[in-house]
Structure formats: C-alpha cells, structure tokens
Description:
- This protein is an alpha/beta fold.
- It has a domain at 3-258 and 451-494: Amidase signature (AS) domain (Amidase signature (AS) enzymes).
- It is built from 17 helices and eleven strands.
- It has an eleven-stranded mixed beta sheet with strand order 1-3-2-4-6-5-10-11-9-7-8, sandwiched between helices.
- Helix 7 runs antiparallel to helix 17, helix 10 packs across helix 13 (366-379) and helix 10 packs across helix 14 (385-406).
- The longest helix is centred in the C-terminal third of the chain and has 22 residues, at 385-406.
- The radius of gyration is 22 Å and the shape is globular.
- It starts with 7 loop residues before the first helix and ends in an 11-residue tail after the last helix.
- The model has no long low-confidence stretch (mean pLDDT 96).
Amino acid sequence: MSLTQKSATEQLALLQSGELTSVELTQAYLDRIQAVDSSVGAFLRIETESALAQAAGIDARRAAGQPVGKLAGLPVAIKDILCTKDTPTTCGSKMLENFVPPYNATVVEKLLAADAVILGRTNMDEFAMGSSTENSAYHPTKNPWDTTRIPGGSSGGAAACISADMAPLSVGTDTGGSIRQPAALCGCVGLKPTYGRVSRYGLIAFASSLDQIGPLARTVEDAALLLEVLAGHDPLDSTSVNAPAPAYSETVNQPLENLTLGVVDHHFGEGIDPEIVSAVQKAIEVYESLGATIKHIEMPHADYGVATYYIIAPCEASSNLARYDGVHYGYRADQAEVMAELAEDGSDEGPLVRMYRKTRSEGFGPEVQRRIMLGTYALSEGYYDAFYLKALKVRRLIRQDYDNAFAEVDMIIGPVTSNPAFAQGEKNSDPMAMYLEDLYTVTANLAGVAGISLPCGFTENGLPIGLQLQAAPFEEEKLLRAAQMFQTATDFHTRRPELS
C-alpha cells in the first residue's frame, strides 16, 4: 500500500510517531496530483509552494517539541466555495474568476488552527448548482472509477480527489445532496452535518437555509476526525448553534447497542436501479447481523421533496446572487462593448442597465441563470403565495415526517442515488432528469437533519454504490458510530480505482 492510499488516521499516527514528516506526506500528494489529475480534473488550483511551506513549519514545531494541532501535517483539499484570504475563490464561476477574499471562512480558520496543510482548491458546479460537476466554468471533473462518467456534484472535485488518492481529507458543501451524492458515486465517505453544526461564515451562499459544510474522506474514522475540527459554535454566523461539538474521533469506534433502523419502502420503488436496490438491501442485512432492528416506516411527504427544494433553493439563489451586478466586485462586462451595443441597436435602455444585464448574462453559466429565473419568478408578485409560501409549508411537513420517524427509530437507512454514475453529457439537455438525481438527498437539507453516505457495493461495471444513513438533528456522533459499524464489517471502503 502506497503512502497516499493510507487513511488520514493512519497517516496522522505516523506523523505523531515521527516515522513520517508532513513535507514527505504533502509532497507525496502533490506528486500524485501531478500524475493523475490531468485525467480527473478534481482541482482548480494547487497550492504547491504554500502547502510545502506550511508542512515544513509544522515539522519544525513538532521537532522542537512545540504544541501542534489535531490535524498537524495532514493535507486537506477545500472546495472552491469557501473564502480563503489572499487566494482566488471562484465558486466555479466566471463571475468570481478574479475574486480574492480579504478574509478566511471560519472553517478555513479552524483548519489552519488545527495545523492542516491546505493542499488546493477543488472543482465544483458553478455556485454549487448541479449534480455532475459539469457546470464549472473552467472544466468538468471526471469520475476516477470511469473517466467517461461524472463524479456527482456539486462537490465533485472534493469527492474525486479523495477517490483518486489525491488528498486524505477534503471539505465540501451540501445544499441538496452535494456532499453525499458525489461521495456515493465516487466510493468515499461524505457527511452532511445538521444545519447549524458547522459555521457557514465565509461560505459563498447558494441557498442560505439549506447550505451546510461537511467532510469527505476515505473512511468513517477520517470523516469523524475532520468533522471534529470543523464543528462548533461561531458568533460570526447567526445560524450557528451554540452547543459544544462532541469528540467524534474518540467515540466513532464504539458500536451502538439496540440500534433501530427505519426503512422507507417507497425509496425502493419505480425508477431505482436494481443493482442499487440489491446493494442497499444487503447492507441492511449486514446491520441485522450486527444486532440492529429493522423497522418499516412511512415518510408520506417525501414525494414532494424535489419539487419543494427546486422552489426554495432557486428563490434563495435569486436573492443571494442579486449582488453580482458588476459594480462592487466580481466580473464586469466591458464598458466599450456595452456602449457599442447601445449605439448599434439604438436602445434607450441606458448604459447602467445594459451593463447589469450584460454582466450577468456573461458572468453566469446556463444552469445558474436557469435557477435565478426560476427563483425570481416564484418570488414575483402574484406567484409568491402559490409557489414559495406553499413550498415553505410543505417543507414543514417534511420536517414533521422526520420528527415522527425519529420518534420510532434511531436512523433512516436507504439509497443515496437512484442510479450509479452516468455518462458525461448524458443529462445536460434534460434539467428535470438532472434534478431527480437529488431525489433521496434533498429532504435532509429541507429538514435540517444529518446524513452520511458510505460505500456499500459496486455495480457489475465496477461503479461504486452508496448507502445513506440519516439521523436526528445533532446526532452526528451516533451517525458516525453506526456508519463505522458497517465499515468494520465490510471492505468496500478499501477498494481503489485504477488510474494511470
């Protein structure tokens, strides 16, 4: 097993014992990125010099016997939606191509305080809008298991870099499944924490009531280690819950007794791939063999999840993205071109309005424009009550479904996706088909509960299949322990794609 194939937990033990230096580990990942990322496209930016400088500083402090952080010397990749001081943060968009934040997101500050080495910034669907990482303004990301297929999205780069052993840990965001879905399709672990568990300060907003930051990793233990660093109250984020974060890494290996898992039969209905049904059912049998009780439950409003999400999320996107107008920061249409167009078409629109319109039409890609228009329409006079207000009411019913379920069971178990990774370009012309990729994940965001995806099998073609566990708000500790039980009993997480 090569150094980059070891888990973050194993690497951290080697660093702490002095058998490995952070410079050696960081260089190994930089070499791996150099070798394989040209065929995957997981990264938008590699921080070679600063990463090696960080690593050298951590090694020097460790050698001198000085205190070091919880992640001391471990490289971490960051989704390009989290503001990092003096480093371009593009959100996968032309609109922010030259944006350099003057401050760090809280989670970036936490990583630096834990002495993580910032390896680079991962590719994503523009403004986190997409399920395939084909909507990036720069290049698509490909699935390491089959580079003709998508890795999922919007955190496709964050998942692909873990799957291809280009980073031991990465940070993604999940608005409707954007951590769990790519984790499932790339064969790694991805956790969406409860809304409010991790600070959103410095996260470039897509849908503020849905966005959440979380870890992607090779193993459940690694995800627990990273979440322990990311979680916690932040006074800079008014939605951050003022509650201490448990020591997830210390309890993750403690099995759960009297575990009751809820199965929603409707999740296995029409439209789901039979291979995914088989893999998830076998995973349920593994839990039964470990002593878990399986109980069939109802989630009567789950059918409305996608429709509800694709009203609320675009409405919030329409509001959040209104700030990108070419005036304060970000992309701005060329003024000479604006004036030339006005002179040519004889419009009385005015140069300011034309600049706004040209900036937004050039700076935003098609999917972002589509969602802004959907949201603006749903919020407009005469339609607000019929669409947005009704969606908020259904959202409350979905949350009630979860509350009722968690009164009967500890967790809900089921699929993450209805299909394995599909071919690049296969669904680009059919937005509805792409939106349905979020069928099993959006309700957790609407309800604000915690969810995790972990590998549970492979298709006949060798594509990963993910298993989803969902737990009540702020039950991440229990969620991780349950996931670790399955991981200990199986070996799916040990398999690697073959990349030349």
